[in-house]
Amino acid sequence: MMKKSLVLACIAVLLTGVSALAQTLKFGHIDSGQLIQMMPQTKQADSTLKKFGESLDSQLKGMTMEYQTKLQSYQSKADSMPEAIRTTKEKELTDLGNRIQDFQQTAQESIQKKKEELYGPILKKAEDAIKDIAKEKAYSYIFDTSLGSVIFAQESDNIMPLVKSRLGIK
Question: Out of 4, 30, 130, 137, which residue is the most buried by the measure of CB atoms under 10 Å away?
Fold first, then answer.
């Protein structure tokens, strides 16, 4: 009987402690993707990245046109070329094709690096503002609803207006 009373007392204490802890937790949420899109720096970064991509695309188109021109020239004259010249032209075409592939891969890596360079500071600024608001308003957790991983949550505060105000976004 004594053990039962002790177990019940422990359970009561635990439930009271969990209930008190749950009452002190404060939850908030924000759609960080939407916030990033609202930031004025994002438009500038988008524009810069687009121009960068277009310049790389222009170079790639030039290389592709050169390849197409050389290929057509080769195909139209291949039957009448001596073996040594035909072999040399085939090697030129193969080398140019390989350079195009290398350029495509390098261009993709360059675009990714440029994207990180442009958007990194924007993401940090947004993250810092969210953390500042969370600390100032004593939030225990802030959930990012743009990630779509929160299926259900108890009522929480949308801190978007506070963060927008902190960042000077209207």
Answer: 30
